[in-house]
Adenosylcobinamide amidohydrolase
Amino acid sequence: MALPFYNYYSHVQKDQNKYRSSVWPGLYVSAHERHIKASSPSAVTALSSAVYGGGMIELDRIFNIYVDRHYRCDDPPRDVADLLSEWQEQQDQCAGLLTAVRLEHTAIQEYESDEFGLLCCTTAGVSNAARAGSARTVFDAAGNEMSNGTVSQKIGKVSSSTYTPGTINIMLWMNGRMTAGAMVNAVQTAVEAKAAALADFGVMDSENGLPATGTTTDAIVLAVSQDGVNKPLISYAGTATVMGAAIGRLVYDTITESLQAAQEWKERNNKQ
C-alpha cells in the first residue's frame, strides 16, 4: 500500500515525513503532527471545493488538517485560518481541508505519461457516508436541519451536524496543461471513481443503508501547473481519455488504500 507517512506517525521512523514527487519537480508532500502539507515551487491554477480556499484560485500549498471526529464548529474557515497563523503559514494562495481520518492513512500514488504527470493524495473516512439522490436529513444554507423536505423544529438554530468530519479529501496535482473545462471534467471523473471505490468496498449510507456515493463533507482540490511548452493542451478528462483513466485509477486506488488501512487499524485495536 502506498502509505508514505505510516512509519512517521507510528514513530517507527520519525524522519520519514517528506514525499517528493517523481512527476512534478519541486512538488513535495510533508507530514506534520496535525496536518499533511503539499507544496509546489510556485503558484499554480487550482479548482477547489475546500472549506478554506474554495473556487478557482491560485495556490502553492494545500493543507489536509486533522480534527477530532467530535469536532463541531460554525465557522471551519476561521479555524483553518487560525491554524495557519499558528503554524506561521501565509493565509493566501492556499487551500485547507479538514479530516477526522488518522493521517498515517494518507495514500499517495503517481502516474506519468508524455503528456502530463499526476499525483493523487487522499485520506478517506466514511463515518458520515451518504448516497446522492436518496432521501436523508439535509441542511439549508443557514445550517438549519431539514427532514423529508420540511424544516424541523430546529428552524432558526444552526445544527452542529452541518459539518461532520469523516470525509474523503482528495488532492490532485497535475503537471501539464489543461483548459478550464477539462479541469471541471477531471473533477467529475474523480467523483465517479470515488463512487466506484466506495461501491466496491461495500460502504453504505449511514442513514438509510443504501450504497454510498461519498460522504456528506467530501472535498477535492485539483491543481494544474499549466507548464510545458512541449506538452499538449488537454481539453477533455473523461473516462475514455488518458488523463481521465489516470485520474480514475489513482483516485480509486488511493481511496481503497486509505479505507483498507483504517479497517485494519480498527481490527487491530478492536474498534467499531
